[in-house]
Amino acid sequence: MSAYQKEYQWALSQPESFWAEQSKNIDWFKAPQTILANDENGIERWFPDGELNTAWLALDYHCEQGRGEKVALIYDSPVTDSKQQFTYSQLRDQVANIAGMLAEQGVTKGDRVVIYMPMIPEAAMAMLACARLGAIHSVVFGGFAANELAVRLEDAEPKVAMTASCGIEINKVIPYKPLVDRAIMDSRWKPERVILLQRPQCEAELQSERDLDWAEALEGVKPHACVPVLATDPLYILYTSGTTGKPKGVVRDNGGHAVAMKYSMSAIYDVPQDGVYWAASDVGWVVGHSYIVYAPLIHGCTTVLFEGKPVRTPDPGAFWRVCEEYQVDVLFSAPTAFRAIKKEDPEGELIKQFNLSNLKTIFMAGERLDPPTQEWVESKTAKPVVDHWWQTETGWAIAGNPTGIEVMPIKAGSATKPIPGYQVEILDELGEPVAPNQQGFVALKRPLPPSCLPTVWRNHDRFESGYLSQFPGYYVSGDGGYLDEEGYLFIMGRIDDVINVAGHRLSTGEMEEIVGAHPAIAECAVVGVHDDLKGQLPLGLVVLKDGVKIDDLQLEGELVGKVRDQIGAVACFKHALVVERLPKTRSGKILRRTIRQIADGEQYTVPSTIDDPTSLEEIEKALHS
Ligand code: COA
Ligand code: AMP
């Protein structure tokens, strides 16, 4: 048996013994006696009687072990032309003070804190400060509009919101305070306090008693100690797009998460404790939670927090410059970032200017890694490129090439094999496993390993109906794909109304709700069409109400504005096409998949359930004219 098979079989046949062993690698306040047990909802929970604190594991523990002087976090910000480094003891002290500041505002264990911040060290510190108090953070990506923030405020009901005066994008400053004010105005839930960090690029006005200046609020506070929590207590809620306009609050627990994070750093990424780990993502996404903040710090690495883009900050050499400057061991980003670099530096001239001898492996996730991008990065950097598949719901990779266990041969287009702890099966519509190479629903057999969500925040029914009830005994991932005869997993894309735009997960269902609310529109469909740079881009097809006269371009402009205003620029909704009617089944279901295939110029079969086949010809004409 290979090393991978051995480890995989152990996790499969004796999950409790496997995870009990892994749990010994973190410093519990009270080690768990029970490894796996069902909760009141009948959901399997890991380490239910263990006690710990995630901020302790990420900071204090390393200081206690004599590693306080090691650099914990490097901040590199080409957009503000600044750089900063924090040792473990410096980071611990700042986090303890921020925790003290939150405690003074009445935040205690179990309270929620919404964090709407750009990629600055204080964002990570705010997360860790919540963890220190046993409070539950919910980070909202800075690219989301006020409406998205309002929806999250309403669902999470935070006591405090933490923000900064602005975010900085390529050549533009985005003031956050007006967005926060509007979100609070629109939300039925009002946080008691907004703590705002002023940035010199755009200072915000504090208007009411509700608003507190971060620096002033910190003055004279007492550092707060780590509060013990149960392994099953929530560490954070992270909202992610589902099929409707209401995002799902994915709940992450403390204990399972910490154990999985620690395990992944050795098993998947093979990073030494003194290594430098760089996830070029954003703290607003799950990759940022797991691999900018928690996993590298729990492991004792140096993590890089980069406030910039792969291109235009200032050029497509940014990634390679950072890798050389900080001796990065492992780089992790989304394929779209590398496609952007490839577009602007096709020959990889800038790669040659930097010494990448320290860089061991490049990991990619967030969307399918297309073979041309994989080949380009591999050939230009001469580094192994590892695709791995995961979701906000799991918090870590479900399938990948576990380089710390065994480096398996790579197959283009495949995320390699299930990571130990995950049982990946491909099911047909009846829930029966299909033969190798046959596509179906990618499902995970329960129990899910540590770190995977145990529920949707305050909506357990949604967890059951959205993930568990379709195939009893399984979690349905929402992705379609197949396993080949050697057990390699190929993820072929979402089979629901979720699309992936530049590695950002977005709901076409939500866009349809916004577009469909326009007074001129009778009905609409939004589909994700292929884009060479961003993977997918949303495209709206709209049918006007009878008798409505409106210029197509004016309508498109209004719809683009509405989506931008309600979801955010990051949705990249730029096109809406007026059509006479939408192709439907006889029962009235819009044939979105077929529309997408037509838009992408793919071969398609006319569904047997179609109401009127000529409707497809009309769409084909409209899309390609
Ligand atoms: N705050 C505010 N606005 C943001 C934002 C943020 N954090 N992130 C993106 N936006 C805005 C951008 O300014 C842009 O606005 P515009 O339409 O007014 O120009 C819009 O959202 C789209 O942004 P983006 O998707 O970043 O496109 P881009 O063309 O500026 O850059 C890439 C293209 C490929 C360089 C960029 O998408 C990228 O770096 N992708 C990697 C994504 C990633 O790391 N994903 C995480 C998963 S691991
Ligand atoms: P998110 O929850 O934002 O991480 O998005 C998860 C979704 O992104 C998955 O359900 C997939 O559709 C897609 N995804 C993430 N990683 C990969 C990958 N390596 N290959 C293919 N799709 C991926």
Automatic annotation (TrEMBL):
Q: Which residue numbers delimit the AMP-dependent synthetase/ligase domain?
A: 65-447
Domain named AMP-binding enzyme C-terminal is located at 510-589
Alphabetized GO MF terms: propionate-CoA ligase activity
EC no.?
Answer: 6.2.1.17
Which PROSITE patterns does the record cross-reference, listed alphabetically?
AMP_BINDING
Gene Ontology cellular component list: intracellular organelle lumen
Q: Which UniProt keywords apply?
A: Ligase
Gene3D superfamilies recorded:
3.30.300.30, N-terminal domain of ligase-like
Q: Where is the Acetyl-coenzyme A synthetase N-terminal domain?
A: 4-56
Source taxon at top rank: Bacteria
- PANTHER family listed in its UniProt record: ACYL-COA SYNTHETASE (PTHR43347), ACYL-COA SYNTHETASE SHORT-CHAIN FAMILY MEMBER 3, MITOCHONDRIAL (PTHR43347:SF3)
Which family is it part of?
Belongs to the ATP-dependent AMP-binding enzyme family.
The protein depicted here goes by the name Propionyl-CoA synthetase
Which organism is this protein's natural source?
Vibrio galatheae
- Mind giving the lineage of the organism this protein is from? Bacteria, Pseudomonadati, Pseudomonadota, Gammaproteobacteria, Vibrionales
Q: Point out the gene that encodes the protein.
A: prpE
